[in-house]
Each structure stands twice: as structure tokens, then as C-alpha cells.
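step 4 of 6: structure.
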Amino acid sequence: MQETVRVALDAMGGDNAPGEVVKGAVEAVNAKENIKVFLVGKEEAVKGELSKYTYPLDRIEVVNASEVITTEEAPVMAIRRKKDSSIVVGQKLVKNGEADAFISAGSTGAILVGGQLVVGRIHGVERPPLATLIPTVNGVALLVDSGANVDARASHLVQFAKMGSIYMEHVIGIKKPRVAIVNVGVEEEKGNALVKETFPLLKECEDINFTGSIEAREIPHGGADVIVAEGFTGNVILKLYEGLGSALISKIKGGMMSTFRSKMGALLVKPALKETLKTFDATEYGGAPMLGLNGLVVKTHGNASSKEVKNTIFQCVTFKEQKINEKIKALFAEKPEK
Amino acid sequence: MQETVRVALDAMGGDNAPGEVVKGAVEAVNAKENIKVFLVGKEEAVKGELSKYTYPLDRIEVVNASEVITTEEAPVMAIRRKKDSSIVVGQKLVKNGEADAFISAGSTGAILVGGQLVVGRIHGVERPPLATLIPTVNGVALLVDSGANVDARASHLVQFAKMGSIYMEHVIGIKKPRVAIVNVGVEEEKGNALVKETFPLLKECEDINFTGSIEAREIPHGGADVIVAEGFTGNVILKLYEGLGSALISKIKGGMMSTFRSKMGALLVKPALKETLKTFDATEYGGAPMLGLNGLVVKTHGNASSKEVKNTIFQCVTFKEQKINEKIKALFAEKPEK
């Protein structure tokens, strides 16, 4: 018999809450039997949305949370003060072992701070990174850390590499994922102080397939499976991915509409092009897990649709079934970093 | 009467040397009267190329240099040992006042090291940055530093901002260019230690139009005219621009060829699309100057065509005519940083 995976879902987080979030939860429990969802948020609003759907009643439970943390609020303050917010209440369910995972499309800062303060780190993990799947020409790569820890140190980056490698192998299914560190050149003497300190440490790791440095140019071309970066650099990469993608696509649309001839062509090209560009859209790949916590915390896009919510719930199922946290615990229990 | 601008051109640098370099020099002197070019490189090879063209003989001079620095060589060692290389000989012409500018498509590392060791810094300039024009949806932005100084300090970044602002205003012609620092968020409390230290210093600068932080997402959308970054981050941005652009374009081409219908459309769309994408191609915007040297040093793309060489020579003319170096000297003479 399959074990049930219990997911706490922030029903108030993101631009499309609670509508799309509730819809995604319903779609998930209707599609798979071993899922139980706790919808955390303002009871009345959530129940109002839920009443629109048919689903197995015992597999969705509403947990009331009277407050909402907005993206404008300073994260640390918000987590400390709003004890009855959907983020704090949802993360407490994970902390207390009542849920296996927490998903939110709300304030990234608050989710990250709550992950550390409410859920807590696995023993031995110094800094839990955010791990985001980014599209490449031939699949996806995991960018870790994509923004949780700016000013991270070399020992943190080594942990990012190890946890990212486990995630990529067991959740995404890439055997012996190629792990590379973001650098300004591929020669071993290249780099800033942090990369020069981290490089030999990664080279020594026997439990990962470290392939050396990767220049940012090679990331979209699939040059590595796990892209290790300090949080500032990782965040720049993630956001430039989004910005450059949308800028280029708007340029291309403009170009297609520039002449009568090209307008005719655009009509013919459109369906195929749409399908292709979808594979290069970061929002297609579910949420970004925060690795190394006592439980799973996943950040989804602020504008997540019901489909993304559903896929992120399925991602939590794989995470649990593949015993990712047990593997991370074993890693740091065997070889303590400190 | 117009003053003649004397440009030393590395005839041996880049993938297309000496052919395209020599051709670009000829095109430049044939197009404008106030240009004199020194073609620096192996005399026989350069003269062989030159013999193919017609041009005013007194405006192109060949300067022999028996050695070539390759991109594989360690830059500092190469500059010290290869005294008769085209890079060292060309930069010495600038150092000795025989040329106003040096252009090379060769080893970036060697050009940067030579800029510091051979040409030398303007008094008061701590770290000369590389300033690269990158395309945006509505024009160009100047990325400074795009890779010369990793591990730069806050005072360096302030100088990058000031020199970049002068360049953007007087060479590109954007009045009061908006200067922004690359950051992980726009709120003032956001950032890594370096950005947090630099931000208030930039805010105090009266001689630039500092508009605050910019997230990488907004760079391609034209969120600022001068993008200030430490060299590691700047290099990641520049290379991701290149890599993501080429990856997306190859995806789009693939998409257009995926069905019969879309293939027909592609034929109609192609000319307009090609024109549009050209405006988003970083190689269209000439070379990247190293700012703050006693003379001008410009790095062009390794695969520079004669057209890019010609445009870069014109860029040197504007740089001289707009007295950029005099403006930089005045800036640091008035308000010494140290």
C-alpha cells in the first residue's frame, strides 16, 4: 500500500489565491490517491472556493489562518509577528509532523525565513538553499542557490552541490548528475576568491560528479545538470533568464508583425512556436524546494496556475517517496562538515 | 580642421585575423578622413592582406610585431614575456603617445593586463573596468564592469558608475543616463555585503543620476542605462546574455521547422525576424572599452568582422573627440577618492 503524502498548501499566497490554489489542490487529489492536502488560509474564503468542486472529502482539510503576509512586508518581522498567518500556520504543520511538505506562492522572503525559523534545518546543514529548475535546450538544470543566501561561504556551496545532486538524481531522475560551479572562465586559476576557495573542495567530494567550472554562456545550452552558485549570483542568473526570455519573445513578436508578409507567416508559425517556447518557460517546471530542512518547503511562482500547483504537489510526493530528506540526513550524519 | 585620431590595431588578434582586421582598417580610412591606423602584427602577413585594397597610403602604417599572444596563455606571464607581441607593441604606441587608442580582438585577459601594466591607469582610478554595451528592448545599456575586476570593492564600483555615466552620455549620447546597481531586489535593505556598502555611496554622488537597484530581470527591458556590477556578476550577466540569446534562437528555429505549416510560415517571417534579432545581438555594438586608462584600449569580439572593426575605430574617434579621458581625469582630480 502506498503511503499517503500530506501537503500543507498556502491558500492565500500568490496573485491567483485562493482560486487557482484551491483548484490545483482539487485536481491533485482527484488525480492521485495517496495525497492529502491541508488548505491553510481564511476558512470562509477557502471553503467558498472548495464548494465549487467535487472531490473525496476526507482528502482535503481546511486549516484556518486569520492573517496573510504580503510581499511588501519585511520577512523576519512578518514571520515573528503574524503567528496566525497562512505561512506560519502551514509551516508549523510540517514542523509538528502533521504535514510532510508546505507549498506557497507567497512572499519568497517570508517563506525562506519561515523555513529556517519555523521548520528548522536538518542537523549539519549550514544554510538551506533554494533550488530552482531552469530550462535548457535539451531539458532542465537545477540552479542552487537561486537566492536564499547572499554572501554564502565555500562550505555552504559544497553543501548546495551535494544536496542539489541528490535532488537532481532522485526527483528528476538524472543518473550521476554533472555538477558545475558558475565561474568567469573554465581554467582552474580563474574565479573570484569564493570560487577559488570552493573549487578544490568540490573536486575532493567523492559523492558528487563534479565537472569543474561552467561559464554562464553554457548554462542554457545544458552544460551541467546542477549549477552551483552563491545566492547573489544565482538570483541574477534566475532573474536574467526570466527577463531575457520575455524581452526576446516580445522582440520576436514585434518582428513578426512588422511587415504584411511576416504577418501572414506569423499566423502559420504561431502554434508550433508556442509549443516550443513553452519548453523554455521557467514557470512550467513546478516549484523551487528549499533543501536541507526538517520537512519540505516549496516556493511556487507568484502567478502559479492550478496546473503548477498540482504539479508542485506531485513533486512533493516524489520528494517523499524518494526519501530525499533521509538521504540528506545520512549525508551529513556520515561526514559532519564542522 | 579636424584632429586626426590615431588608432593602433592588433592585426593578429581574433579568429578572423589578419584578413577581417585589415579589411576593417581599410574601410575605416576610406570612410573618414581624420583617421590614421597602425596595423600591428607580422609585417609580411599584414602587407599581404593590405595589397588587396586601395586606400590613402599615408593613413595606414604597418608596425611589425613578431610575436602573438594566444587566448590559451596565462595573461600576466604572456604580457611580461612577449615584449614583441602585437598586444604589447600596440599598447606601447598608446603609452608613448604615438597612438590615441588600441583595439584588439585577441585574448581578453592579456588586453586587460596590458592595459594596466603597459598603458597604465589615469591618476586616481583604482581599477579600470571593462564597459560593454548590451542590447535592450529599446536600445542599449552599458554594463560596467563586465569582467575586468572580480572581487572589486565598493569604492571601485563607485568609480565604475561615474566613468560609465560619462561614456554613456558623451559617446552614446544619452543625457543624464540612469545609473543602477545590480541587486537581488529593489528595496534598499536588499543585497549582499558589497551592494549594501556601495548603495549609500552611489546615493551620495552628485555627478551621476543614480536611480537605485536593478534586478537582472529588468536589464533586458531597459530598466537603466548604466548597469553597475562587480566584475564577477557583470561577466555572468554578459555571458548569460550571449548564451540565452543563442539558445532561444536555436529553439525558435527548431520550432519553426517542426511542422509543414510552420515551415511555410518561417519562409515568410524570416526576413523581418532576422532584422529584429540583429538589434538584440551583442556583437552589433562595437567593442568594449577599458575605462580609466591613459589612452583608450578597446576589446572587440573574438569573431569580429571587418564591419565591427570599422565601427570600433569610429567609436575611438568619438571617444577622442568627446574628450572622455579628459573628463575622467577632471573627475578624479577634483575629488580624489583616496
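step 5 of 6: annotate
 - Chain B touches chain A through 63 residues (CB under 8 Å).
 - The CA atoms of residues 122 and 329 of chain B lie 7 Å apart.
step 6 of 6: archive
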